Give the backbone structure.
Amino acid sequence: MQTRTPSQAFDAFVSGTLAKGDWTHEAHLITCWVALQSRTPGQTLTFLRKAITDHNCGLGIENSATSGYHETLTAYYVNAVAGAGAATVEDVFDHPSCSRTAPLQHWSKEVLFSARARSAWVEPDLLSLGFQPATDG
């Protein structure tokens, strides 16, 4: 990813100018963190549902049962980033619940990467989150 401030990365995402190679786990976290600066977790999830789907379409990424937008992961990370209470995006990157592998503490791969979890919120099958995530705006 080019060196950008979090706001610049968010703006590139929203405007559709963020390159496919720059649409990384970290870019997702930045987008989520910036969105949460002016939205509740529920509002952020509602915003990201459309924004990620639209961004994927602009990049030629199909949103389907096997690729593209993933509701359970998006809802998890919105709530993880909000719960981290991070003052900076670097603090988000360092927070254990925001790591790339953190969701696998709560869901088996079979459940997390299922078509059902991609299209709708699915409760964890391994370990409770310890909170009820916001799933709507």
Observations:
- The chain has one domain: 6-119.
- The first helix runs from residue 6 to 15.
- The chain has a mean pLDDT of 93.
